[in-house]
Amino acid sequence: MTIELTILLSIVSVSAAVYFGLSGVRRDQKNDDMQETAQLTTVLVKLENINNGINKIESKMDRVESETRANSEKLIKVEESTKQAHKRIDEIVQKGGIDSEN
Fold this sequence. Notes:
The structure is a single chain. It is built from one helix and no strands. The chain has one helix at 2-95.
C-alpha cells in the first residue's frame, strides 16, 4: 500500500509540475506577445511620424520651387527692363542730350 501511495503521490506531483510548467510557458508567451505588439505599435507610430515629416518637407519644397520660378521670371523681366533702359540711355548720350564726359 505504501508503494501505491508513493506512486500516486509521484504521479500527482509530476502532473502538477507539468500543469504549472505549461501554464507558466503560456503566460510567458502571452507576455512576450504583448511586448512584441507594443514594440511594433511604437515602430508603426514612429514610421507614421516620419512619413508626416517627409510630406511636410515635400510640401515646403514645392512652395520653394514655385517661389524660385516666380523669382526667376521677375529677374528676367528686370533684366529686360534694365537692358531697354541702357539702350535708351545710350541713345540719349549719342544724341548729345547728356554730356558723356561727366
